[in-house]
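for the writeup, i need someone to sanity check this before i put it in the appendix. the sequnce is what the collaborator sent (i think, or maybe the updated version? ugh). structure was predicted straight from it, no edits. if anything looks off just tell me and ill rerun, i have time this weekend
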Amino acid sequence: MKTAAPIRALAALAPASVLAITAALLIAAASLTAGANELDDRASIAAMLDDFHAAAADADRERYLGHFTEQGVFMGTDDWERWPLPEFTEYVAGRFENGGGWEYHPESRHIAFDSSGDTAWFDEIAVSPRWGRFRGTGVVLRTDGGWKLAHYSLTALVPNEQFREVSELTRQGFAARDEKDR
């Protein structure tokens, strides 16, 4: 019988060889599973971030804030805008109160994971119909409730060709604010 020959050959191998082959097969299977899990996690994170933006556009406070961890922080575009979740909750409630949120549509997104697979970070280019292009960056954590934002930072983008003009405007703006605060 031809099929018995490979089985006899495998049985004739030294036990250490059999163990090495078995270990290699198990490692390969684990790598395939990890790769599939990472793809699933990337899709889950992308879906969470898409819903985060959609909830803001819908002015859905509970859904929007529900994407943050309890210790979550939102970093806005102004230098003073560092919003721990309790303060951000108040701000969002006021902004969403009359049904007005904000709209950002991601154009591109990159996601990376730490070695545990329970922490990821991302960057995305998001476009606001009203304000233009921004970069969102953040850290997400795997929780019992799915992936949640621990940190989100929104940065206004400036083309290098216009940076000199924009930097002069920002210097003037901060100087005027500092003078007013004296």
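The CA atoms of residues 37 and 117 lie 9 Å apart. The chain has one domain: 4-181.
thx in advance!!
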